[in-house]
UniProtKB/TrEMBL annotation:
<dbReference type="InterPro" id="IPR001722">
    <property type="entry name" value="Glyco_hydro_7"/>
</dbReference>
<keyword id="KW-0378">Hydrolase</keyword>
<keyword id="KW-0624">Polysaccharide degradation</keyword>
<keyword id="KW-0119">Carbohydrate metabolism</keyword>
<keyword id="KW-0326">Glycosidase</keyword>
<dbReference type="GO" id="GO:0030245">
    <property type="term" value="P:cellulose catabolic process"/>
</dbReference>
<protein>
    <recommendedName>
        <fullName>cellulose 1,4-beta-cellobiosidase (non-reducing end)</fullName>
        <ecNumber>3.2.1.91</ecNumber>
    </recommendedName>
</protein>
<dbReference type="InterPro" id="IPR037019">
    <property type="entry name" value="Glyco_hydro_7_sf"/>
</dbReference>
<comment type="similarity">
    <text>Belongs to the glycosyl hydrolase 7 (cellulase C) family.</text>
</comment>
<dbReference type="GO" id="GO:0016162">
    <property type="term" value="F:cellulose 1,4-beta-cellobiosidase activity"/>
</dbReference>
<keyword id="KW-0732">Signal</keyword>
<dbReference type="Pfam" id="PF00840">
    <property type="entry name" value="Glyco_hydro_7"/>
</dbReference>
<keyword id="KW-0136">Cellulose degradation</keyword>
<dbReference type="InterPro" id="IPR013320">
    <property type="entry name" value="ConA-like_dom_sf"/>
</dbReference>
Amino acid sequence: HKGSNGRLSEITRLYVQNGKVIANSESKIAGVPGSSLTPEFCTAQKKVFGDTDDFAKKGAWSGMSDALEAPMVLVMSLWHDHHSNMLWLDST
């Protein structure tokens, strides 16, 4: 979402299943409220988990907003793994 200043202010996630739109669930982590990515959510998440805020060091939301103004290509690959049921995603 763009804020009133035209810059990136929020990233939301919605799911569509059988034609029904399903909102992302609320965070259940104490001290990290919300159901979308916002500057406040990201800052709180780093504090709660004691992580280094590398995102802030790299420009944070302002840097992300600048990057999204440039042309981009989204590349995705979807497949079904009958042999190992994609267990590699779980590092098993």
